[in-house]
What does this fold into?
Amino acid sequence: MATSRTPLQPLNGSLLLGLPEEILLKIFQQFCDHCYYDKTLQRQNPDRDDAILNRKALRAVSLVCKQLRNVAFPIIHHHIPLAWRV
It folds into this structure.
């Protein structure tokens, strides 16, 4: 008996892994305080707690599998704040 699947569900069962890397990059960039706040919201000083949570979220995504790591890892490390503004 064959299993049925919806047209949007890839064979491996993950919609996220079925997305092209360009789309994943755009999604993960929303968690980069350096890029997202500076360009989208014109906010120069993101809340420190938000920035820490966003970096932790990107790190967690990068630990899921190699495909997600390859997209998330460069975003995590392209800007490292040396000091938090208060």
Summary: The chain is about 50% helix and 0% strand. The mean pLDDT is 75. Helices lie at 21-29, 33-39, 48-62, 66-77. The longest helix spans residues 48-62.
